[in-house]
Give the backbone structure.
Amino acid sequence: MLKTLRSVVRLRKFDWNSRRRRLARCGDINDLRRLAKRHLPGGVFDYFDGAAETEWSMDNNSDSFEHVHLNPRVLVDVSHIDTSTTVMGQPMAYPYAFSPTGFTRIATSAGELAVARVAAQRGVPYTLSTLGTRSIEEVAAVSNGPLWYQLYVWKDRGLSRELVQRAKAAGYKAIMVTVDTAVFGRRQRDVRRGFTLPPKIGPETFIDGMRHPRWTLDFLTHEPITFSAVSGRGDVDGSTAITLSDYVNSQFDASLSWRDLDWVRSESGLPIMLKGIQSVNDAQRAVAEGVEAIALSNHGGRQYDGSPAPIALLPAVMDAVGDGIEVLVDGGVRRGSDVVKACALGARAVMFGRPYLYGIGAAGEMGVDWVVDYFNAGITRTMALVGATDLASLRGTARIGK
Ligand SMILES: Cc1cc2nc3c(=O)[nH]c(=O)nc-3n(C[C@H](O)[C@H](O)[C@H](O)COP(=O)(O)O)c2cc1C
């Protein structure tokens, strides 16, 4: 009996690093999300995790990947798989980039710097948001990888011009104009909590903070969080608590239209990606305007609740625009196989936001690194399982149906 017992008992070496230990037990992004939920105060988690109104669009974004099927080819030599591509001229080892997310420092003081560092080390393009809480220059200083700058156009055009020019001077390689935020979506979780940026300390936040001592200590022992792009401009830098909705609606230009794209291009001289295209007609218009790339996106369901899932829109867009423009898919990507499905339907690459936010919320920089490992392994494994040795050989291997 002892012999049998000895043959099955293998004591796993204990890992003294609690973050690594917990990450090792995460099977997928849902597990990482649960871990982030445990580690962050409720209001912070809901700001990352929530979406607009009924949250139907957010759920539908990821559910729609389940209706895409790949037809595996067998007896293909998959001992070498090439996952590389380019987007707007930038080489990428894997076909995905990190979407812009505002206020990342609310998860941990390193915020955007932590995400940008991992992205650069792992060759993933990182997009800094206009609502970033680390400056254009601070992010550039920690990154020797591809950086893109996401632009919300301010009513104060001088400010937009200044940001675009700073991004160019700091070595950012593209401007991503977000076009789905004429006004701010109604994020009901934030409304219910009265969530402001930075958070106001009331009795509920106080109790929540006590239950998350690690987060609270980090928050209280670092410099106050502000919108770094406009740091020092007390009227707009977020140094006084404000709801994001009031901020966006008062500061950003709701009159932005197709006519303004030439202005963005002439100010920056950089390639332009439009993020937030939600119809075939607008994809065609983007081609006509000579834009380099589009991201089919509904802002992760945070803007118009009811917008089509980007992955479901992709086939019709590809039929309409062919290879006339680079098309990316953003929203609901949770597995390496989702990335492969999008590429099989013609996407140049995908982007995602919440997965790396869950990573940083769950375990800081180490959590973001886990996300990169998880996606890279998932993409390579799926390509091997469906018999594709490079991204081009995926084309035409997907169908959409139940
Ligand atoms: C917390 C959070 C903040 C975001 N902030 C911005 C932003 O400042 N600018 C922007 O263009 N998109 C923003 N987005 C949208 C993301 O860029 C991206 O479109 C979305 O997260 C994709 O969906 P996914 O989270 O399912 O991957 C944000 C998303 C989240 C979750």
Q: What stands out?
A: Residues 25-397 form a domain with the TIM Barrel fold (CATH 3.20.20.70). The mean pLDDT is 93.
